[in-house]
Every structure is written in C-alpha cells, then in structure tokens.
Amino acid sequence: MTLAIMAVPFGLTSPIATSLVGGGPAVIIWGWILVAVLTQTLAFSLAEICSKYPTSAGAYYWCYRLASPRTRLLASWINGWLTVVGGWMADLSVKFGTAQLIVAGAGIFYPEWNATASQTYMIFLGVTTVAGIFCIFFNRLLPTVDILCACWTGLGIIVISVCLLAKAAAGRRPVSFALGNFDPSLSGWTPGWSFFIGLLPPAYTFSAIGMIINMAEEVHNPSKILPKAIVSSVPIGALSGVVFLLPILFTLPDVATLLQVSSGQPIGLMFTLIMGSRAGGFGLWFIIFGIGMFCSISTSCASSRATWAFARDKAIPFHRCFSKIGPYLEDVPANAYALSTVIQVLLGLVYLCSSAAFNAFAGVAVMCLGASYAMPVAISLMNGRRDVHDAPFNLGRFGTFINAIAVLWIMFVTVLFSMPAVIPVTRWSMNYASAVFVGFGVISAVWYIINGRFYYRGPPIQEERISSPGSSDSASY
Asked: Any transmembrane segments, and where (predicted)?
C-alpha cells in the first residue's frame, strides 16, 4: 500500500511542469535525489516512534503520548487536524492530478480541444466516483488492488524506460543536458530559489510515506511491519524514480513546447513527441493513468481511515456520525469516507478560480502531512529522546542528528510550498496553498474553543483500547 500511495511515476509526472519551470533537468534529477535523502531521515524518525506506538491514530496519538500532561491535549488536537487535512489534500491532489491526466490523454488525439475549468472539474468528479465505488463496495479487494498497483508500477517503469530510449523520436540529449541543464528564467525567481521551487514533484511523491500508519490496526504485527514499510519505501522509491527519470531526461523534447500545453499537464505531449506517434504516446500515457487510478483508490482509503480515527476520538464535528462503521458495507467507515469526499469536492472548486489549483492541493498536502510527522519527532527531541530509548526500531546514537535534520527539512518545506511557482503573480497563477492551510487552521482553532476544550480528551491510550471486528472501534481492511 505504501508503494501504491507513493506512486512514483505518477507523483513525478503529474506536477512535472513545476520542475520544468523551476530549472529543468538538473532540478528534476538532483532535486529527486536530494529530497529522497532528506525524506529518509524523516522515515527513520517516524519508524522509530511507530514501532513503539503502532496505532491508526498515528502522529496525533504520538504527540499525546510524548508531550507533557499540560500540553498533550492541545498538541494532539493540532496534530490530528494536520493529519486529517493532509490526508484529504493528498487524496484530492491525486484525484485532481488524474483528472488533468485524462485531459492530457485526450489532447494526444484531439490537440485542438481545450478543456474548460468546469469540464476538468467534472472529470475530477468522475475519478472521485470510481475511487469511491472501489473503497466502499469492494473493500476486501483493496489489498489485491495495492498488489496490482505495485506490479503495474514496476512493470510500467520498465516499459516506459525501454520505449523512450529505443525511440527517442524528438532526439537524444547529451549527458551535460540530461544531468546538468539548469534554466531558471521561466520562473522569474533567483536561480537558487527557483531550484527549490522545482522540488514540488519529489516532495509531493514522498509526502505520504506516513499515511500507511493509518492502517496500523488492520495489519498483523504492526510494530514490525509498519517501520519496515516506512523505511524501505524511500530507497525503493528513490531507485525506481531514477530509473524512470533518466530515460525522460535523455530524450526530453523542447521544454518551451511542453509548457505551452493548455491543460498544464505536458506528459501526453511529451510521450507523443518522444515516441514519434500518437499511438505510442497514448500507450505510455495509459501506464501513468493506470497508476493514478490505483493511487486514487489507495489514498481514498487511507484518508477515510484517518478521518474515522479522529472522529472516533471526538475531535471532528458530529463525531458520533462520522465514527460509525457500516455493518452492511463490509465494516467500511462509510460516513467518514463521505465526509472526506464532500470536503474534497468542495475544495476542488478552487480550480474554477486558479489554474494553479493542483499545485496548491499538492503543496497543502506536503505542508500538512510534513508538519504532522515533524511534530512528534520535535517533541521527542525536546524530551531528550528518552521516550523512544526502548523502541523496537531504535536509531541509537544517531537519533538526535537524524531527528533534527528531519524537523528542519519540514520547516523549510512549509515555507517553500507556500510560494507561487512563477512570478509576477496573477490571479490565475496564485498559489492558494497558504490560504487553504491557514483556513483549516482557523476552523480547527474555532472548533477547539467551541467544543474541543470541553469534550476532547485525547486519543485512548493504546493499552486501554480493545477492538473487535465489526465493533465501533475497528474497521476491516
């Protein structure tokens, strides 16, 4: 499921225009490696805490256990909202990216067709509906879906790499271009900052490595399985990303031509130009599209579980309703899924006002999920790491250094992805990530004042929670 959520080819190509604007090939390949190294420190940090406290509540449960009695309620409340909103936005960005991918696929055969914002939004609703059907009515098949996604992704990377290198109809690029070409002029930012702006695709791809934690109560032996999944996902993802990116960079068509695509998604045109035919371009596009659909199903499942867990702990308005498990739908948290979906459908309307909405969705996902992961790590650091000294997966003497790098990286990312990708800024190119981020922060604060401070008691201590299949405290996967 971790590999399905990460969906490396989809995560790297759906926002690839940002990396092309940020500088091109050098940003794409070296940015990927840089982000992978920094993300590994976060993966190690999360795995250590997860091995001691494996629960579907995830990071906000960890904040409750690690923070002092005086601050634990507020810390877990803030973190829980970051986790839930991050899950919603990651799911929204994947579905919306898939919708834009469909528009790009149509553009392969109908280049004269320019999809309107409302048409793209309707396609997004279609993707959301398909993912919902799988998650609600075929819940017991989801592990099989994740396995199929991993196989589809692995084989897809091989097929795409071989085809691109074999055809190269747009010409072959020298090593100096594929690994060293850097042109920040399209972004308008200074060269250094332009490079960092272009890091959105790799940061977005790795942003959801912790979403697998939400499935802790639905897998066997989570204290061993989850840390192993979190830690191994980064090097596996990094290696597959390099194998996927290098053939693209060595056969990359003219960047200016790719960025002129009206859909804002150049992947369809890029594959068509490299393969030299519409049929060839469509074939490679279909592989990425399949990954996007698989990923949509997985992120939908994970975000609904995060919503359910937080509602179970009485932190969401009308928590009694959203924490119910439907006995007639294979024990699926259908109400929590409905809440997650409705919020995403409403937020998707932002696209009608800004063509950069996808970047905003992806940016908020990176910011919220990153901040939610960094909070328990930061609290552990401030406690001198005394709470994790007996964790089954222990970082030992390198723990302090690894934790510090992880926290600093997330702090930088939070600032970075609040910025617009291009300057000067217009209404259509405005990055609304900071507005959405602050908006949910205000909602969280207001609800805490109205309700949370009176009724929220934090997540149940793990040793006190007894769950059984079909009960209100468990959901089958």
From this structure: 71-90, 121-142, 149-170, 190-213, 225-250, 270-295, 334-352, 358-381, 401-423, 429-450
Where helices occur in 53-116 by DSSP H, the ranges are 59-66, 72-109
Of 234, 244, 203, nearest in space to 362 by CA: 203
Q: What is the pTM of this model?
A: 0.85
308 vs 237: CA distance, rounded Å: 28
Do 440 and 432 touch, CB atoms closer than 8 A?
no
SS (H, E, C) 353-380: CCCCHHHHHHHHHHHHHHHHHHHHHHHH
What is the domain partition of the chain in residue ranges? 2-458
Alpha carbon separation from 391 to 69, 74, 448 (Å, rounded): 21, 25, 32
| Fold designation for 2-458 | Amino acid/polyamine transporter I (1.20.1740)
Helix 72-109, helix 278-312: angle, nearest 10: 160
Residue 376: pLDDT over 70: yes
Question: Buried b / exposed e across 373-392, counting CB within 10 Å, b at 16+?
Answer: bbbbbbbbbeeebebbeebe
Ranges 52-61, 314-323, 388-397, 415-424, most confident: 388-397
The two tokens of residue 463 are 């040793």
